[in-house]
Amino acid sequence: MAGWTSSGAVASDTEPQLVDRGAKPSGTVVEVRGVQIGGRTVDLDSSPCAVESAEQLLATATAVRDSGAAILRGGAFKPRTSPYSFQGLKEEGLELLAWVRRETGMPVVTEVMDTRKVEEVSAHADMLQVGSRHMHSYPLLEEVGRSGMPVLLKRGMSATLDEFLFAAEYVLKQGNERVVLCERGIRTFEQSTRNTLDLNAVPMLKRRTHLPVIVDPSHGTGHWWMVPCLSRAAVAVGADGLLVEVHPDPDNALSDGPQSLKPERFDVMMQELRPVAIAVGREISAPRH
Amino acid sequence: MAGWTSSGAVASDTEPQLVDRGAKPSGTVVEVRGVQIGGRTVDLDSSPCAVESAEQLLATATAVRDSGAAILRGGAFKPRTSPYSFQGLKEEGLELLAWVRRETGMPVVTEVMDTRKVEEVSAHADMLQVGSRHMHSYPLLEEVGRSGMPVLLKRGMSATLDEFLFAAEYVLKQGNERVVLCERGIRTFEQSTRNTLDLNAVPMLKRRTHLPVIVDPSHGTGHWWMVPCLSRAAVAVGADGLLVEVHPDPDNALSDGPQSLKPERFDVMMQELRPVAIAVGREISAPRH
Amino acid sequence: MAGWTSSGAVASDTEPQLVDRGAKPSGTVVEVRGVQIGGRTVDLDSSPCAVESAEQLLATATAVRDSGAAILRGGAFKPRTSPYSFQGLKEEGLELLAWVRRETGMPVVTEVMDTRKVEEVSAHADMLQVGSRHMHSYPLLEEVGRSGMPVLLKRGMSATLDEFLFAAEYVLKQGNERVVLCERGIRTFEQSTRNTLDLNAVPMLKRRTHLPVIVDPSHGTGHWWMVPCLSRAAVAVGADGLLVEVHPDPDNALSDGPQSLKPERFDVMMQELRPVAIAVGREISAPRH
Amino acid sequence: MAGWTSSGAVASDTEPQLVDRGAKPSGTVVEVRGVQIGGRTVDLDSSPCAVESAEQLLATATAVRDSGAAILRGGAFKPRTSPYSFQGLKEEGLELLAWVRRETGMPVVTEVMDTRKVEEVSAHADMLQVGSRHMHSYPLLEEVGRSGMPVLLKRGMSATLDEFLFAAEYVLKQGNERVVLCERGIRTFEQSTRNTLDLNAVPMLKRRTHLPVIVDPSHGTGHWWMVPCLSRAAVAVGADGLLVEVHPDPDNALSDGPQSLKPERFDVMMQELRPVAIAVGREISAPRH
């Protein structure tokens, strides 16, 4: 059993085991309802940060799908620093996500923050996100592990890469290796960006683990105008995918407007990304328009 | 209702409301089964990091009580970076804590990490700890808020003081203002100490909130030999209490041995703390030996 | 010779040698024109951040001397982030310092930033300060080492304690062991204080080196109202001295007003510090009023 | 005059003036003996970290020149944390650099750490480097400004981008706008890389200033195997050049071996960079073999 040698002695607790690259040198491809993450194609997951209404969600989903985005992310339960900030549409948001999934055919990923909600969220989505604030929440990691669902695991705000890999290990230890790691910026002294997107993490993680690694330049920088060039950098450094926030009307977004691209800018970004992907031997899925 | 003005307009989400010093200028005293935190007496909460056995727990509890410790902390559910590290005795650990509580008369505080466990843990303990890894877990904060139990809220590893206060606000918003804040060191570039104990946080928090603020020099430094002098500094800077790890046999502790004091050193430390407390107009409860 | 064994092999470059506690277990007392730093008495060095005028400097010096301050610090050459900020009175500031030294009898410490100025500054002051911005400037450290003057070495903004000790080693390697280390806050993600005063550094440095260690709570916090309680904490944690900014009119200070105490508050602070010093077996020099 | 309005009022000290993008929207191209930095071509500056011997230097220079490197960097005066580490060949190193410059025709950049050495170093090199440890050393910045030489200014270990721009402002204020900024990694809690290369800095700096911005992935990561992919990312994000350490025998390098590429790996890296540069509308100078 994981973590235990056949003689019953406990395995070392200083190195993750199941996520280690040596355990699967060829690398893991995580499939999310037909979309493969970790293969030759660099996947674009795109989203409004929060699900606000049916129109907003469908408009965004259709636009990003037509630009080539493969997976739709939308927040139904939103972790917000202040209890007075918009907390998401919750159950209603889940219903909207499931509806848009049917309308667009796109697989859907959404965050779960509470062990009690894992089952319900699993019934409405194709992939569960464990956000930065919960990367260290081991009961939650075990519960999403037991669900068997694909898991999008975001790096904690100041998690070392060791801690990040151990967090994934908690999921794999439940028999679920459908885990995608997401670098989303770390907390440093620098305040001109919301976080410091740590692209060093991508090659370091790819060397140490067989799991796919994607990058979230929207949270990583906090500025929409930085997202395209950091996205190019992320593809160039070897990321297996991108998670980019898109909103039809960023100025009036209920959450994270300043870091959201408009759909038309997202489309331009996608076109600019293709040659970079090709330059490093990867490709980006074709737009449907 | 909290966060909403009587006209129905939403309150600002950039400032916490209920925890604000202005809401209760005289300061809150949190009572935990007869022990008052936040008054003139600086409270000592002491603990083995993890509950390992009945003997270990009772021996430690009796010793620290006789040295003047008021509250016993013990970990039944232990959040550990590696899933292969000792995870605590769990339900059995809760039973042991409840037993030692009866034997010694000391109130007991223990950590809860899972919303589904709040009720069970509340039945065995006098105070619930929300640890650093879960400070950003809003569903958990709401659940411990609803429990009505006193809450020991530890600062997240890289949480700003704003985020720390907002985390407490989540608890108070449920109608529970029995919250004690605990500074336990932040994550910095400096690696000679486990964390960087941030004593600046104490006066800054005391100015901004009416809640009591205590300090954990054991996690804050990671070195047992640093605990006595940082404890003196914490009392001098105005902390309302200390959370200190004590273990009868640190070399063989299942968790956090290097930062645990032996009971006899803890006793010396208590004696050295008294004149410091008096020098700043506070006192420390008398030893019972 | 320092760093070389008798056989000519180079000494390890991973550990400082001359500053090591083992090289002088009893500890070094640095004498600055009659004032001893590192002995039983906790020294108070006090200063306006910048020398602005003869009146301001003499008024401050007289006031802090009467409250018990032993050494006067004043900035003649001021390192400022912006070239458009007040850069100090330079040579004129040195003359003013030398004049106030004569008037008050207090030894004077001032910063030197340029190897070419070491001789001139040495002629006007009793102690040379190497500031945070120059802690890594090895040619400057060697030059102040060669001067034979007492050196006040401030920790770099993000210097590890290893780097800090090696910086001191550069001075001692020139045959000058009159070095006083000063913790002044490190750079972290936390923005509510100007820096994060790292009091853990005090016991860690005292264990590793025989050099005296003092604390600058003014730069360490950036808020004058935090200075008294962090000063108490610094004394309680074992600091050999304090460096505190005082200004007769903080609102109109040309530099660092928000972190400067008024002389009358400094006097109150000194009175509050005495019992804390006594509580930890130290003393603070008596006021002269 | 810079920083003063015509009415004599002092300019704001909260924003740099001369380096501001608005002062020269088209961007500055810095010419270093025929090589242009900041134009369409992404320049490769390559170097052994320290100059060790004539053979090592010439072999490295010839190899990297043949792979397309435009400028040679070599350390004659080496700032080392420990005074017992190799400190560079100093004056002899300068002579060697000047000799290799003649032999290869490559312009040479080397570090200066002492105001007293600016003239001498200027006589032997084509560009002066101000290293991370001296970014805050304003007298040095002013002296290199007055020299009129092109300046390679590296970001301080924990310098904010504001401070970085102000450091450049000190140089420009002396009438010298031949400044190239270099991102080289910042200090964070993450310890698996030597520093955290902050690629967010590139677009943020390019937006705020007209000066060219290059990237040093060798110091930024500390691992030679990470250099190629971070170099690709740096080009993709918009860097105007790269500074890459190359050593013919990294295992026996006197400084920074673990982060140095062998010449043959550097050549492969250059070939891989070309399509990435083209993908973002740039080019890389052709190899001469």
General description of the model:
- 4 copies of one chain form a homotetramer.
- By secondary structure, chain A is an alpha/beta fold.
- Chain A has a single domain (32-284), classed as Aldolase class I (TIM Barrel).
- Chain A has helices at 54-67, 91-104, 118-124, 138-147, 161-172, 201-208, 217-221, 227-237, 263-279; strands at residues 30-32, 35-37, 41-47, 71-73, 108-111, 127-130, 151-154, 179-183, 213-215, 241-245, 283-284.
- In chain A, strands 3-4-5-6-7-8-9-10 form an 8-stranded parallel β-barrel, surrounded by 7 helices.
- In chain A, helix 1 (54-67) packs parallel to helix 2.
- The longest helix of chain A has 17 residues, at 263-279.
- Chain A is globular and about 50 Å long.
- The first copy, chain A, starts with 29 loop residues before the first strand and ends in a 5-residue tail after the last strand.
- Chains C and D meet through helix 4 and helix 5 of C and helix 4 and helix 5 of D.
End-to-end Cα distance of chain A, whole Å, is 49 Å
Percent of sequence in beta strands of chain A = 5-15%
Radius of gyration of chain A: 18 Å
Please, how many helices of chain A? 9
CATH fold annotation of chain A: TIM Barrel
Assembly type: homotetramer
Low-confidence stretches of chain A: 1-10
In terms of structural class, how would the helical and strand content of chain A be classed?
Answer: alpha/beta
Q: By CATH's scheme, which homologous superfamily of chain A applies?
A: Aldolase class I
Number of folding domains of chain A? 1
Large-scale geometry of chain A: globular
CATH classification class of chain A: Alpha Beta
Report the biggest beta sheet of chain A as strand number plus sense, adding barrel if it closes: 8 strands, parallel, barrel
Largest interface: A-D, 40 and 40 residues
Reading the helices and strands of chain A in chain order gives: EEEHEHEHEHEHEHEHHEHE
Q: Largest sheet of chain A, order of strands side by side?
A: 3-4-5-6-7-8-9-10
